[in-house]
Amino acid sequence: MAATSIPGFDHSYARLGGLFSTPQKLDPVSDPTLIFWNRRFAEQLGWRGDPISDPQQLGALAGNQLLTDSQPIATVYAGHQFGQYNPQLGDGRATLLGEWITPSEQRVDVQLKGAGPTPYSRGGDGRAPLGPVIREYVVSEAMAGLGVPTSRALAAVATGEPVIRNRIEQGAILTRVASSHLRVGTIQFFAMTRGGEGLESLVDYAVARHFAESTEQPIIGGDAKPATTLLEGVCQHFARLVAHWQVLGFVHGVLNTDNALLCGETIDFGPCAFMDHFDPEASFSSIDRQGRYAWHNQPGIMHWNLAVLAECLLPLIDDSAETARHTAQTVVDRYPQIFHTHHQSWLAAKLGLDTIRESDAALVQSFHDALATGKLDFTLAFRWLAEWANGNLEHSPIPELFTPSDSLNRWAQEWRARQKNNNGDQSLIAANMYRVNPAIIPRNHLVQRAIDTVESGHIEWAQSLVDRFASPYEWQAGDDEWARTPLEEERVTRTFCGT
Ligand code: AMP
Ligand code: MG
Q: Where are the alpha helices (DSSP H) in 76-167?
């Protein structure tokens, strides 16, 4: 996968051939203006130029002209959407400009999302309204700040053209960067829709790109086939990613197989939201009426997505159907345990416990029960514990923002007793709580305010929100406004894909 110039664009996926993608023409827009430019991230990428000082670069990020060595393509994939197989989806409103090779020789996809129709648009306009672009920019950058594997936002540009949805909206284009955009749905397209044609090349490609050097303990061991390596790697990624979402109260909202990246980064921020008060059934997406993708269902749904991937890979796992099935099942069956291990270790850190012991199960359960029955703020409750464990509660701003219920206060007595039993350096365990319990999350009403203000032509407030997420675990002066639970009239309980 050698690149021609570093940093710069390469096109290894396009080189796989026409079965996988289609060259994409530019579709210029009338009046591009810059909304956000992620200067810090651009520096990490070794990006050349910027759209602030260079109108050509601005034009390129609006799809009006090509960047040096960019060869845009749209890629094909399929996917289960709300459990139903759709045999062909694809980049309907995204164009892959190429794979950017960073100075440290990392390979990342750079896409323009909302840059016009492609062969996979299925009647859609290939465009994106400003609101969803702002949501994705803010939330994906907040996720990055929170340390969650995620696609990134490099730029957001308004097109100067209207987009027609339920109402007329302003059009915008997001420059999205991910380790790759290969999805469970990409594998599905070749395994299921094409009956296996191209599948082996795709699997070899995905393994070379993402799982060449696995650091995890192998599940199967021995001389595993690439398909097995892929399944194991994705199993590890999914289990760790969902555990991280769960402990932050993140609800993705549309965990279809086409929105599950093989590289284990969070993608597709359409209807996503963080919960304010703890509610296991939290579900915000207007199209998820059954709560299929509610918070408490996410671990199980990603397990299901993994099983779909396994099914697709069977012919490449072993020549014997029986052995293949056994191997795949062994990997898929390991997911709950890997998830549990990650989840428990996050929870232990967040609760200031050395580890979650078997005898702690009831304590953990009653903590969640107290939050749920008291409709208490999920993020602030953990921060309250962190301040308490560090003997800092009275001197901290948290009591102004968070009032524990009687049952949480009672629970905290038990928790303090259990904490005293910790093995290891108590003060280190307590101090570490600040590093895993964020002071701020991108709360729904903040994201909505960012969207509203940008839509009315004011970028500063939204920019300051994005900037604040460079260090979400640190309490900073003026944070009360970012950290507080929304007032009843501010609460946003429904989110919309806005496609
Ligand atoms: P999503 O719900 O964002 O994961 O999108 C599901 C599928 O619909 C993907 O294949 C998208 O490319 C496609 N899609 C979403 N919005 C549009 C649009 N405005 N025009 C064309 N295709 C779209
Ligand atoms: Mg999608």
A: 130-146
- Condensed to tens digits (0 to 9), the pLDDT of residues 56-72 reads 999 999 999 999 999 99
DSSP code string of 225-291: -HHHHHHHHHHHHHHHHHHHHHHHTEE-S---GGG-BTT--B---SS-EE-SB--TT---BTT-TT-
Token digits of residue 287: 């199209």
Q: Of the candidates 367, 450, 479, which has an alpha carbon nearest to the alpha carbon of residue 413? A: 367
User: Is the beta carbon of 90 within 6 A of some atom in ligand 1?
Assistant: yes
**Interaxial angle between packed helices 460-468 and 130-146, expressed in degrees from 0 to 180 and rounded to the nearest 10:** 20
pLDDT digits (tens, 9 = 90+) for 198-216: 999 999 999 999 999 876 7
83 lines ligand 1 (CB under 6 A): no
User: Which residue type does 398 have?
Assistant: I
pLDDT in tens, 403-456: 999 999 999 999 999 999 999 999 999 999 999 999 999 999 999 999 999 999
Classified as helix, coil or strand, 469 is coil
Model pTM? 0.97
Q: Judge contact between 485 and 277, C-beta under 8 A.
A: yes
Query: 88 C-alpha to center of ligand 1: Å?
Result: 11
Distances (CA, A) of 396 to 246, 258, 477: 26, 43, 11
Compute, in angstroms, the gap from residue 182 CA to the centroid of ligand 2.
Answer: 11
3-state secondary structure of 164: strand
Q: Which of 201, 157, 163 is nearest to 20 (CA)?
A: 201
Confidence of residue 220 (pLDDT cuts 50, 70, 90): confident
Q: Tell me the two tokens of residue 418.
A: 């259990």
From residue 123, give the alpha-carbon distance in Å to each of 93, 117, 367, 436.
11, 9, 49, 44
DSSP 313-350: HHHHH-SSHHHHHHHHHHHHHHHHHHHHHHHHHHHHHH
Whether the Cβ atoms of residue 141 and residue 466 lie closer than 8 Å to each other: yes
Q: Which of 185, 154, 187, 200 is nearest to 61 (CA)?
A: 154
Active-site residue 479, yes or no?
no
Indicate whether residue 486 lines ligand 1 (CB < 6 A).
no
Q: Phi and psi at residue 304, in whole multiples of 5°?
A: -60, -45
Nearest CA to ligand 1 atom 23: 92
Burial class (CB in 10 A: 0-12, 13-18, 19+), 110: buried
Which tokens in the block code for residue 279?
């509610």
Q: By three-state DSSP, how is residue 31 classified?
A: coil
Closest CA to 46 of 109, 112, 104: 104
For residue 497, the tally of other CB atoms under 10 A from its CB is: 17
Expressed in angstroms and rounded, the spacing between residue 457 Cα and the centre of ligand 2 is 28
Average pLDDT of the segment spanning 87-91: 98
Tokens representing residue 424 in the block: 């290891």
Phi-psi sector, 122: left (phi>0), alpha (psi -120 to 50), beta: left
